Amino acid sequence: MIDPGPDDPAHLDALSSALEGERVTHIFVTHGHADHSPAAHPLAARTGAKVYASPIAVAKSDIDLRVEADEDLGFEPDAFASDGARFSGPGWTLEAIATPGHTANHTAFALLEENALFSGDHIMGWSTTVISPPDGDMDDYLASLEKVRARDFTTLWPTHGPPILQPRPFIDAYIAHRLEREAQIIARLEAGDTRIPDMVAVMYAAVDKRLHPAAAHSVLAHMIRLVKRGRVRCDGAPSVARTYRLA
Ligand SMILES: [Zn+2]
């Protein structure tokens, strides 16, 4: 079982009936978000399975503009699924692949027999992933996308959305989308903007203003990466309120 979901009695009953006749030995968790991990231990108690996840603890994002599920802050696995660790059973071998970015502890799981990847929220089938600092990290995220791209998987099975049957062009488009956003930010800096809200007003002019605070948080995620890479200077620790200029 991978990412059993929320700790909801009706949901757990549905899982139990879907699993009837099966023996559950391992429960893998991609990351500690409320729609992924809370059912792991209740399901383990019902099945006798062990829960496996990243050794990195679930951290709180500082975001009040909740655009994604809450963190499952108390979550801890029974055993670690560190990068490269392999787990196996009859007919299956799963390899843990650390894919930080969406969260620091995000881990995807490769099913080696099918050259397939259970990509969690790292790569979604229905939208782009939310990168919310400080737990979310855009620089790590892009590195994790390249790490997955290099593995040349045949199929990606995201936690949300349909399977991705042509991973390479899909991941290329995912990376291009982020780099395009980054180029827009650099263009605003070149145009003389120094504050994130001013950049957002131009970059997201076509978007409902109520979404601008969330957009500012997303620009901040890029800005942290640009500062880390030395392209941009900030007058302190990067935040939405700081001022930025090109290095
Ligand atoms: Zn998530």
Draw up the topology in text.
Blueprint: H1 9-18, E1 26-28, H2 40-47, E2 50-53, E3 79-80, E4 86-89, E5 92-98, E6 107-111, E7 116-120, H3 138-150, E8 155-158, H4 167-190, H5 196-203, H6 212-228, E9 232-234, E10 244-246
Parallel strand pairs: 1-2, 2-3, 7-8
Antiparallel strand pairs: 4-5, 5-6, 6-7, 9-10
Bound molecules: zinc ion.
Q: Unreliable stretches, pLDDT < 50, 5 or more residues? A: none
Compute the number of strand runs. 10
Ligands, deduplicated: zinc ion
| Main sheet overview | 5 strands, mixed
Q: Give the count of structural domains.
A: 2
Number of H/I helices? 6
Structural class: alpha/beta
Give the SSE order as H and E letters: HEHEEEEEEHEHHHEE
CATH architecture label of the largest domain: 4-Layer Sandwich
Q: Into which percentage range does the β-strand content fall?
A: 15-25%
Protein traits:
alpha/beta, 6 helices, Metallo-beta-lactamase, Chain A, binds zinc ion, 10 strands, 5-stranded mixed β-sheet, 247 residues, single chain, 3-stranded parallel β-sheet
